[in-house]
């Protein structure tokens, strides 16, 4: 049975066209009402992935926008929204604004001309700041949605992906969070001697280990240039020495028994329960971890952020960070694409971005939105984001979805001891070669600017 929620806000057109804008700058008039909303009542449709953040914030912002613009906004959501949206994109009956969720291949929609280019909209003034809307975003996150010189996919909130450690467990035993690979090996031996698993992971979803172990160590060894070459499908990049070294490091942790026994068979929440209940000292995960596990955490549990331990002598700057946003699009065939973009501009105002951070305990892709009172488990990631010399992403798994499956399979086989590190990276290189030679696949080039 489909599960979704619909809210419809209906208001008569205000005399004079639109209501006065509310917000921190009361002296500044509201942005002009787009011409599409003049005359008869206009209804916008907003379709949202209904996950841990719920729908209430988006419903409220839609109502506020509707009151200012004198129109109707329908907001609905579903945990598997992409299943409803796929058929609608085929039919050309699409919403005006959508967060299509992780199950939608958004880049294919871009290639097919199904996503509205946002360049003109981004050049417009920000809702509540004296600058172009484009300049309010964290640049590295906004650039992720760019293709062939145009912006298509826009970031909203984002997650920092790193490691987390059990604070009280570390305090009890006098352990210090490791900053380097050598420190990690020494610490793991101490944790193991105490009868606790040094590391657990969400083995049922190997992407956690790619992002938590493999990519960061390849970057630490070879720098962002090595990782850029791999994402850009440069021949030989995926089997190059930095990636082989990362695979060897993972195999070393495996062979020394530093990964929790049985982790390969664990769902994400199972592994995360092992962590919060103190049977594992550290875990790779994104900043959603606390929100996802808060109802299962013991009353005195405390976790904190930990950068992936770096390889001493490697080419990667130790501040390099992995962050990935949740993204929204305006469908090209929307009935009111300009208004859909304008509503998203309102949702991403600095005031509203700060509200989302405060209410939903996540970080936003809007500069300055973290300048609020943050819970301790977000304060360190926010600080790391500000300090990062560059922010990297696993873009290739979005551009070339078949690579994600092949890479996950190779890493799972390595973790299970079924293949060697050399065979692991060779399998990845073979998959990358296949993608590179597939002329049907649009190709991307990335440069992070380290």
Q: CATH architecture of the largest domain, please?
A: 3-Layer(aba) Sandwich
The helicity comes to 40-55%
- CATH class designation of the largest domain: Alpha Beta
Decide which structural class fits the backbone.
alpha/beta
The count of DSSP E runs of length 2 or more, i.e. the number of strands, is 13
Q: How many independent structural domains?
A: 2
What does the model show?
There is one protein chain. The chain has 450 residues and is α/β, with parallel strands linked by helices. The chain has two domains: 210 residues, Periplasmic binding protein-like II (D-Maltodextrin-Binding Protein, domain 2), CATH 3.40.190.10; 208 residues, D-Maltodextrin-Binding Protein, domain 2 (3-Layer(aba) Sandwich). It is built from 17 helices and 13 strands. Strands 7, 8, 9, 10, 11, 12 and 13 form a seven-stranded mixed β-sheet that branches. Strands 1-3-2-4 form a four-stranded mixed β-sheet. β2, α1 and β3 form a beta-alpha-beta unit. The longest helix is centred in the middle third of the chain and has 25 residues. The chain starts with a strand and ends in a 13-residue tail after the last helix.
